[in-house]
């Protein structure tokens, strides 16, 4: 055995001895005396070395070093070293939940923030102070946010926005000589209790830490999976489009090559060239049987809940499972020309009112069908002409559980509807405020900036204060656009925000200050991503592969469903058009039709009946 192999073997034996020592330590901790005796005896018989448990003296020594380093960095104002040690050595169950620890951590952040002002009272190190203020803001918006509702800490949330804290009466106590020694005593006492050496066996500690890291890793992987699913859907859509373009290009290329070869051989190729660049006639595809839409709409209104659900499922499947192109276009045009969703109906209750059904499956399958309509450009055009649709969809967002498939389908449908030019502002504001999402339409918001700003500033006065962070987020996001900033200044948005400021709510005031800072900035908007430009195409069809996922409705024995239900019970006369244009002409609108109404803001819902 050479020296390298001997060293490797020595490492293996040392690791094995350490592991056996941890096992013995755990067994002794749990008082398995007989097991410990048998364990020692068997290790001895097998010639296994068992390391001795690490003594408390070593642990005490390490604890004293950590405590000394924490106090030293406190005295030196070294916030980076301090909080690195704090994070690593204060148990999470203490620093995240213990009221004393949370309070102490808050005041420690204040100490490190104002340290440059105390160190040089006459000549403040402004650059260092600004850096620490930025760090303090970050803390207030993350870990410190939980204390914003506690009266003791409220005044300190204004600290980042006070030009000269040393002269401000609210912070007078921070600069008294006694403040730092008192805080240091509290810190020392807290550390002496919290960093007390634990008698917990090392094996148990390793298990706890390993389990925690595994859980965090799983959560991170789940987030990555959601993002990957989104990207896959986008890439599949782009790939399908590229594949179709590629097939067309191959056909044209082949014809051109044949034409060139014919020309080289002296043959007239003009007719072949004209043929090669002429649009190719698509292959005939079978048209689905026509349906009796009046009977369908009657049963959707008056039938049993199970029949309604089966019909909604079958109608959706007709769209999602039809062949892309002429067959799917024909299905959609049949739905629209027969006014399946009763856009022109004068009845008090229309098909869309199934979103208000007391049956959960009926509501979900109605939302799924709307999502399928919104997946196609012509479907979005049809939905955009239904005045009551927005009101019904926002009702769903308010009432449904956050994890429900009904709510998920409504949100996705709203995001797709945001691609429609005539209604972009109203739909997008709903999506932004209720889903904190301005990802697909900031540029379109800019086209009607004053209206967007008016709706958002009106929402600031809504009685439900829980929506304010979303409204503030939407405001902050669209104010990155120079043209919207200019319109906001003309509308005196800064003055409006200051009117809503409240002394008792510094957290809200802080958000307003961020918005005002964005409003008065001179930065240009960053470039849009390629993905966003792709998604912004109103003519694009967005039929995902997972529109039919997680079907909760399954047919019973001998029960008709899907296409068999439609063609058996609802077969109609042949109304399919021989040829469908991709761009249909607008439907004739009856005189009783009302113009599309912009969504009523939440503040005025109190006095508005939902039709």
TrEMBL record:
Establish whether keyword Transit peptide is in the entry.
no
Compartment annotation = Cytoplasm, Cytoskeleton, Cilium basal body; Cytoplasm, Cytoskeleton, Microtubule organizing center, Centrosome, Centriole
Q: Name one GO biological process term.
A: cilium assembly
Q: Which residues form the LisH domain?
A: 435-520
Protein keywords: Cell projection, Cilium biogenesis/degradation, Cytoplasm, Cytoskeleton
Please list the residue ranges that the record marks as compositionally biased, kind Polar residues.
600-611
The region annotated as signal peptide is none
Q: Where's the ARMC9 CTLH-like domain?
A: 65-196
Q: For the region Disordered, what residue ranges are annotated?
A: 521-540, 580-611
Q: Where is the composition biased (Acidic residues)?
A: 522-540
Give the principal location in a single coarse category.
cytoplasm
> What PROSITE patterns does this protein map onto?
LISH (PS50896)
Give the source's domain of life in one word.
Eukaryota
> Cellular component per GO?
centriole; ciliary basal body; ciliary tip
Q: What name has this protein been given in UniProt?
A: LisH domain-containing protein ARMC9
The protein's organism comes out as: Amphiprion ocellaris (Clown anemonefish)
Lineage, broadest ranks: Eukaryota, Metazoa, Chordata, Craniata, Vertebrata
């Amino acid at each position: 055995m050479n020296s390298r192999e001997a060293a490797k073997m020595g490492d293996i034996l040392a690791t094995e001895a350490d592991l056996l020592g941890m096992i013995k330590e755990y067994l002794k901790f749990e008082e398995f005396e007989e097991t410990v005796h048998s364990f020692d005896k068997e290790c001895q018989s097998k010639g296994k070395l068992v390391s001795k448990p690490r003594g408390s003296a070593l642990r005490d020594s390490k604890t004293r070093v950590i405590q000394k380093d924490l106090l030293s960095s406190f005295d030196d104002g070294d916030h980076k070293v301090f909080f690195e040690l704090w994070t690593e050595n204060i148990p999470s169950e203490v620093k995240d939940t213990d009221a004393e620890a949370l309070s102490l951590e808050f005041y420690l952040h204040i100490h490190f923030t104002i340290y440059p002002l105390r160190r040089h009272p006459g000549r403040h190190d402004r650059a260092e102070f600004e850096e620490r203020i930025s760090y303090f803001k970050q803390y207030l918006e993350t870990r410190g946010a939980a204390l914003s509702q506690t009266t003791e800490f409220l005044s300190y949330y204004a600290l980042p926005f006070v030009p000269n804290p040393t002269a401000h009466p609210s912070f007078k106590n921070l600069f008294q000589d006694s403040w730092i020694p008192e805080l240091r005593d509290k810190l020392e006492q807290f550390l002496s209790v919290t960093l007390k050496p634990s008698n917990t066996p090392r094996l148990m500690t390793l298990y706890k830490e390993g389990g925690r890291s595994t859980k965090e890793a799983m959560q991170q992987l789940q987030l990555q999976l959601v993002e990957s699913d989104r990207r896959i859907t986008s890439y599949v859509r782009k790939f399908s489009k590229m594949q179709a373009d590629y097939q067309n290009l191959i056909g044209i290329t082949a014809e051109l090559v044949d034409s060139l070869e014919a020309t080289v051989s002296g043959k007239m190729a003009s007719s072949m060239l004209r043929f090669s660049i002429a649009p190719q006639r698509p292959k005939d595809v079978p048209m689905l049987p026509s349906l009796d839409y009046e009977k369908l709409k009657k049963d959707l209104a008056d039938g049993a809940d199970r029949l309604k659900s089966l019909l909604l499922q079958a109608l959706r499947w007709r769209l999602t499972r039809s062949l892309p192109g002429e067959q799917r276009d024909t299905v959609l045009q049949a739905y629209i020309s027969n006014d399946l969703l009763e856009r022109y109906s004068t009845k008090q209750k229309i098909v869309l009112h199934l979103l208000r059904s007391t049956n959960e499956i009926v509501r979900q399958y109605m939302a799924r069908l709307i999502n399928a309509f919104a997946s196609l450009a012509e479907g979005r055009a049809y939905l955009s002409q239904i005045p009551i649709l927005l009101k019904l969809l926002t009702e769903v967002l308010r009432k449904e559980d956050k994890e429900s498939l009904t709510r998920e389908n409504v949100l996705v449908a709203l995001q797709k509807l945001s691609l429609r030019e005539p209604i972009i502002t109203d739909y997008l504001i709903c999506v932004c405020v209720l889903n904190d999402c301005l990802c697909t339409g900031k540029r379109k918001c800019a086209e009607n900036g004053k209206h967007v700003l008016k709706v958002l500033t009106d929402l600031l006065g809504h009685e439900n204060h829980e929506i304010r962070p979303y409204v503030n987020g939407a405001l902050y996001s669209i104010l990155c656009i120079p043209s919207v900033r200019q319109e906001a200044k003309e509308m005196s948005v800064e003055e409006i925000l200051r009117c809503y400021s409240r002394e008792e709510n510094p957290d809200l005031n802080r958000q307003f200050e961020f918005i005002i800072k964005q409003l008065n900035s001179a930065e240009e908007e960053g470039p849009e991503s390629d993905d966003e430009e792709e998604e912004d195409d109103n003519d694009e069809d967005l039929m995902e592969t997972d529109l039919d996922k997680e079907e909760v409705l399954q047919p019973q024995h001998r029960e008709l469903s899907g296409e068999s239900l439609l063609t058996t019970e609802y077969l109609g006369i042949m109304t399919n058009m021989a040829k469908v244009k991709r761009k249909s002409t607008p439907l004739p609108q009856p005189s009783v039709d009302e113009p599309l109404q912009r969504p009523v803001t939440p503040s005025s819902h109190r006095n508005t009946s939902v039709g």
